[in-house]
Amino acid sequence: MSLVNIRRLVSSNIEYKASDSPFTFISLGKGGQSLEIIHFIVPLAGKIPVFKRFMQNYEEVCLKNKETTQLHIAVFNSESDSSSIKSLMNIVGQYQKRYGGADIEVIYADGTFNRAKALDIGMSRLSEDSLLFFIDVDIFFDKFALFRIRYNTIKNIQVYYPIFFSQYNPLLVCTISDSCEINWTNFTSDHGYWRNTSTGMVSTYKRDLKSVGGLNTSFKGWGKEDGALYKKFVESNLTICRSIDPGMVHVFHQVICDTNLEKDQYNMCKGTEKNTFGSQRQISNIVFSIPDISNKNDKEIMLRQFIRYLFSKK
Fold it and tell me: What is the reported pLDDT for 5?
């Protein structure tokens, strides 16, 4: 079931920001406990260079400023070789040593990577009154995002789904622009788009998550577990706060869709791959600048020619 259909089924408990500016926030939240611990729950499978970047961001925002946060990393052994595990422990150990045993926990799991299971494992030792924030290592965030997590997440009342900015493929951005500087605060339509249908990042209290039945860990491969959880919240008595958060950016990475996925999961994955490649304006401008492209009737030939053109410009 699509996110649009879910909204049509039950939408009375969803509150949306109404404003001409994406950076104006209405008072949906009544949380705002400034000292309440935010528990970052991070699922991880490989991706050590990306994790290293995430930790640098976490250090700048949380560790250096002594924010009341804790980091819980769930790692699947089968998806990470021994050298990756060693690199992960070295990275975490450096931060723990630098910040006097910072609250960073690494939990290992066996089997094939499953995002829902990773999130479940990451919060397994926390109390029901814990404030959770499910986040992927591809997300870049600032200190103001922490305020909005606390403010918009209200125990027994409201969960928070931030609408974050998703960057386009820098290869495409650099091809059509004189400047190749990728700034994470550049929210123009040529650099990315607001992921207003994404349900992967969510802030909730653990007791509220349990009250709707928790995460569905039966999904295999890419996607669907986040949409299933969102549907549970929609059908509950909890209010869903969805608002643009300029303090969260999804850094571009290549999306690889496993052909063994279920058909609907595969289609969702391919949709995300296409959406994050570039804007329609950028792509159409490049396509129609390719000689004789308009005479090509085969879509696969057009796509291959388009990709070759992009790489030839680098």
Answer: 35
Residue 297 has pLDDT above 60, yes or no: no
Pairing assessment for the beta strands 158-167 and 192-194 based on DSSP bridges: antiparallel
Residue 91 contacts residue 52 (beta carbons within 8 Å):
yes
User: How confident is the model at residue 114, as a pLDDT?
Assistant: 86
CB distance 113 to 75 below 8 Å? no
Q: Measured between alpha carbons, how far is 164 from 147 in angstroms, rounded to an integer?
A: 15
pLDDT band at residue 192 using 50, 70 and 90 as cut-offs: confident
Largest pairwise CA distance in the chain: 65
Q: Which amino acid is at 299?
A: K
Per DSSP, 23 falls in state T
Convert 118-155 to b/e letters by CB count within 10 Å (16 or more is b).
bbbbbbeebeeebbbbbbbbbbbbbeebbebbbbbbbb
Mean pLDDT computed over 265-293? 66
Residue 39 CA: distances (Å) to CA of 12, 123, 175, 233, 314: 29, 8, 39, 20, 42
CA atoms of 149 and 19, how far apart (whole Å): 20
Mean pLDDT, the chain, integer: 79
Q: Which of 3 and 36 is assigned the larger pLDDT?
A: 36
Q: Quick check: helix, strand or coil at residue 72?
A: strand
Give the DSSP H/E element, type plus range, for residue 96.
helix 82-98
Cα(54)–Cα(39) distance, rounded to whole angstroms? 15
Counts for the chain of helices (H) and strands (E), in that order: 11, 10
DSSP conformation letters of 151-210: HH-BTTTEEEEEEEEEEPPHHHHHHH-S-----TT---TTTEEE-TT--S-EEEEHHHHH
